[in-house]
Design a protein that fits this description.
About 30% of the residues lie in helices and about 25% in strands. With about 500 residues, the chain is of the alpha/beta class.
């Protein structure tokens, strides 16, 4: 570590006497200070961070377990992006600010020009669309049970022959409110796999811009918003304006590295029962400025928990558990769990010898830790292990209380579960309506995937230390106990 980075780490260490937490945060600072440029997948800065992670693991006595005996597993990817300078979107001559009022999902065969009439069709059930061929269809993006979900809306509009679908991001989805602006518009996929093909435009609209889209109609945007957020009936109508847009998508190939290390096991009888400990190193990098800051540092998402893998390794000083433990810092999580997907498809040890994954992501130590959401709590014996360790620490556990957010499938444990391997991950829990929930919801608006997720943000150091201790004890238990992690009978997640 350079002298400058050491000085920065010391200057931002937490105001606590807990040396372990201070050391963890010092590593977090090294990985997510401005010099790391947000560690965007495929960037030079990402590879610089990857080398730091590998060097720290090596110094801690971990063995390389990447490709060809190296620390790194190269992950090849393809990207299509929409540079902001090449995007123009307007209703007639009234502009919609790209990334602020509207964002677009780039696809390889998306239209590059549009000039179409606008059809507002409520929740966009197939039965209410009518003739929308060649039109841009505006749909309310509800998450309410009993109304069309995102997949149903997309399928209905595509089948009807529309030129595009613009989904209004529902501000009534209080469990995870829409966040604007978006950092950028990119789609990334693993090389050798089929990218998403979508000949029509796929976009999301900030509700604040709805009035401009339906201007001149007899329908008031504020009234539509009230009805949509409540799940009440919405009208179908054509707006008088025309949706006019042009795009200049770019394509490129990129690669980035997973960093894979191994603490060999001490019990030869358990040598084919690898426990993977994972977190993702990538962040967003540079993007659309928020309050004048364009650097998305990704401190809690997820540099802090790559740092926790390093901290665990340094605590062990090269001494293994009974089972072999793999330490995996994945790339491309923010682009679609790509590093984890690549690792599962191209494991650096036989897949049949991977017994479990404990993934670190979605963790926000910004309020007291007395309740922990455990993903797949009742699906594998890892849930029993988490419950036992948490109970010893006075921490209650719960299943995901907000499954509509789909958090289980939004982090790197998901490809592992899809492969039939027990896995788990965690979210700091809160009681509905309490102060912790208010802090958490506020962070999701102001910090999640924003430049404000940086080393200067407020932290609850006691909560951070409690989770880190929970993690150490959980790994001790899972890696050393006689029983190998297993699926619970009746799990709906087991393939």
């Amino acid at each position: 570590m350079s002298i400058a980075l050491i000085a920065l780490a010391l200057a931002t260490s937490p105001p606590a006497t807990d040396r372990d937490t201070s050391a963890w945060w010092a590593t977090t600072t090294v990985l997510s200070n401005d010099a790391m440029e947000g560690r965007d997948t495929g960037s030079v800065a990402y590879e610089r961070a990857a080398k730091i992670v590998a060097a720290r693991l090596a110094a801690a006595g971990v063995k390389p377990a990447g490709d060809n005996g190296s620390w790194f597993q190269r992950v090849p990817m393809e990207q299509v992006a929409l540079p902001k300078a090449g995007v123009h979107i307007a209703v007639d001559t009234t502009p919609l600010a790209f990334l602020h009022d509207i964002t677009v999902e780039p696809t390889v065969d998306m239209p590059t020009k549009l000039d179409a009439t606008i059809a507002f069709r409520g929740y966009c059930g197939a039965a209410v669309l009518g003739d929308v061929r060649g039109k841009v269809v505006v749909c309310w993006g509800t998450h309410r049970p009993g109304l069309p979900d995102a997949a149903a809306r997309l399928a209905a509009v595509r089948t009807a022959g529309a030129a595009g679908i613009v989904t209004v991001a529902d501000p009534g989805f209080a469990v995870e409110p829409p966040r604007w602006p978006f950092a950028y518009a990119r789609s990334v996929w693993l090389a050798g796999t089929t990218p998403r093909h979508e000949a029509m435009l796929v976009a999301a609209l900030n509700v604040a811009a709805l009035g401009r889209v339906v201007a001149g109609s007899s329908h008031d945007a504020a009234a539509l918003t009230v009805a949509g957020t409540m799940g009440e009936p919405l009208p179908s109508f054509d707006a008088p304006g025309r949706f006019v847009a042009s795009f200049a998508p770019t394509r490129k190939s990129l690669t980035a590295s997973n960093i894979i290390g191994l603490l060999p096991g001490t019990d030869a009888a358990l040598a084919n029962q690898h426990i993977v400990l994972s977190a993702h190193l990538d962040g967003y990098g540079f993007g659309e400025p928020v309050d004048g800051d364009a650097l998305y540092n990704g401190t809690l998402d997820d540099a802090a928990y790559v740092a926790l893998l390093i901290q665990l390794a340094e605590r062990r000083h090269g001494h293994g558990y009974r089972r072999p433990v793999m330490l995996a810092a994945f790339t491309g999580e923010e682009k679609g769990l790509l590093g984890a997907r690549w690792f599962v498809a191209h494991p650096t040890v036989p897949l049949a010898t991977i017994a479990a994954d404990i993934n670190l992501d979605q963790l926000r130590p910004i309020f007291p830790l007395d309740l922990l959401t455990v993903h797949a709590l009742d699906d594998t014996t890892l849930g029993n292990d988490a419950r036992a360790v948490a109970g010893e620490m006075g921490i209650a556990v719960q299943k995901d209380p907000e499954p509509e957010r789909n958090l289980l499938r939004r982090a790197d444990q998901w490809p592992v579960l899809q492969a039939g391997i027990p896995a788990t991950a965690f979210v700091f829990g809160y009681r509905p309506g309490g102060p912790s929930e208010r802090v958490y919801r506020h962070w999701y608006v102001t910090g999640y995937h924003k430049p404000q997720d940086d080393i200067a943000q407020p932290m609850d150091w006691t909560a951070a230390a409690r989770f880190n201790t929970f993690f150490y004890r959980l790994v001790d238990r899972v890696a050393d106990q006689p029983a190998v992690p297993a699926w619970q009978p009746g799990s709906t997640l087991k393939p």
